[in-house]
Amino acid sequence: MENCSKEQQEHINQGAETKWMQLLTILDNINDVISLYNCKGEVIFANKKTLSLLNEQKLYDPNNALVSYKFYDELGIELSYENLPFANALKGKYIDSKIIVAKYNEIEIYYSTSAVPIFDNNGTLEYVVSINRNIT
What we know:
single chain, about 140 residues, alpha+beta, seven-stranded antiparallel sheet
């Protein structure tokens, strides 16, 4: 990169920004609930499906929405916040297609949930991606 002219560097940066915008467009058009968390467990991205679901239920802040729900495993056992798939991924565990029941007021939704920890080159957790498919 040191050998690049200012114009070349600007072109590279524009290309990276374009790719980022394309990725966001793709994620926003997937019909699954997708959230990206930082290493502290804070939501740093939620796709349109996620935001639409929260908006329908008047839960506008993705970081606070989870406390309004009760979650259960496929056997009907209530899951604490610490035992949700994304929380386990924050501990470095890979969760694949776990059945979760989300209850909010009279609404009951069954999800197939996957949560993947993402590590940097040193093995330090950077992000968690959570993907929830409605299987109700």
